[in-house]
Amino acid sequence: MTQAARFALIQLGAILGASVCVFFLRLPALYWALIAGAFSTFAAMRWHDRKWWCLIHTAFPLFILLAISFSIDPRWYLAAFLLCWMVFGGVLRNRVPLYLSNSQALEQLAEQVPQGARLLDIGAGTGTVLAWFMRYRPDVQADGIEFAWLPWLLGRIRLANSAAGWQHGDAFAADLAEYDVVYAYLSPEPMGLLWEKAQKEMRPGSLLISNSFDIPNVPPQRVCNIGDWKGSRLLVWKI
After folding, report:
1. DSSP character at residue 216
2. How far is the C-alpha of 163 from the C-alpha of 119, rounded, in Å?
3. Whole-angstrom distance, CA of residue 35 vs CA of residue 44
4. Which InterPro entries match (predicted)?
5. What digits encode the pLDDT tens for the residues 59-118?
6. For residues 65 and 33, is the Cβ–Cβ distance under 8 A?
7. Whole-number Å distance between alpha carbons of 56 and 63
8. Is the dihedral of CA 73, 74, 77, 83 positive or negative?
9. How far apart are CA 143 and CA 158, in angstroms?
10. Residue 161, helix vs strand vs coil
11. For a surface tag, which of 76, 150, 167, 237 has the fewest beta carbons within 10 Å of its beta carbon?
12. Do 213 and 187 contact (CB within 8 A), yes or no?
């Protein structure tokens, strides 16, 4: 079951349970939000593996109550939904949020990329990696692919006058065979699938580099500490 489905089921059960309690006990609306938050938080402690999920479950009913308390035009909710979809569309498809590589990570990445290599950034966000390589490593042919529409559009504008290849689409539909280095800053969820794809498509001797996220049961050949406040690492596998 996906995280989104799990979240929806927990919240639905908590909201229904809180509604029954409030109806029979004739409690104020604030109690509904508190009871629903408590129900969903306890459920999240059992069914979700990250502590921050508990915070989301606790706050969600309170935000619902707050939204209902104000006379907000429904079109604002539609606009917020569309904006979130345009920015985080990859979460729904491949469970990949928007992560942006910082300058420390890019400097470490550049040290791993051979002279004259062809690099693909999958889940390329707003084109940060490509713009950096165009500026500091023009010997590298850097391409990127991004699924979410708004980051892709920003990247298209950003890279309009560069030699970088910029595509809109599903990163897992891209052909990896023609690249010497594939760089990924995704999430823990798709890393196993990415490894299977890399083994099938990438040439022997090419490099798969992940920012921060491991491949399950496949130790990297090389680990480079980035030295940022998040304790990030570059993990390098040679195919």
Report:
1. T
2. 13
3. 14
4. FAM173A/B, SAM-dependent_MTases_sf
5. 888 888 888 788 778 788 788 777 777 777 665 566 667 788 899 999 999 999 999 999
6. yes
7. 10
8. negative
9. 13
10. coil
11. 76
12. yes
Structure tokens at 207: 């490099």
Return the SS3 of 137: coil
User: What is the token pair recorded at 30?
Assistant: 């604030």
The fold for domain 103-238 equals Rossmann fold (3.40.50)
**Angstrom distances, CA of residue 44 to CA of 30, 32, 60:** 21, 18, 12
Distance CA 16, CA 11 (A): 8
CA neighbor of 198 nearest in space, from 114, 122, 104: 122
Block residue for tokens 């490593």: 137
d(CA 161, CA 140): 16
Which three-class secondary structure state does DSSP give residue 201?
Answer: helix
Answer yes or no: are the C-beta atoms of 149 and 92 closer than 8 Å: no
C-alpha distances in Å from residue 124, one per residue of 18, 169, 183: 42, 11, 9
pLDDT (tens digit per residue) in 143-194: 999 988 999 999 999 999 999 999 999 888 899 999 999 999 998 888 999 9
Identify the CA nearest to 33 among candidates 43, 21, 47: 21
CA separation for the pair 11, 28 (Å, rounded): 20
**Could you tell me the strand order of the sheet in which 118-122 lies?**
165-168, 141-146, 118-122, 181-184, 207-211, 233-238, 222-225
Q: In whole angstroms, what is the distance from residue 70 CA to residue 6 CA?
A: 28
> Within 10 A of 76 (CB to CB), how many other CB atoms are there?
10
Q: Can you tell me the distance from the alpha carbon of 183 to that of 69, in angstroms, rounded to the nearest whole number? A: 46
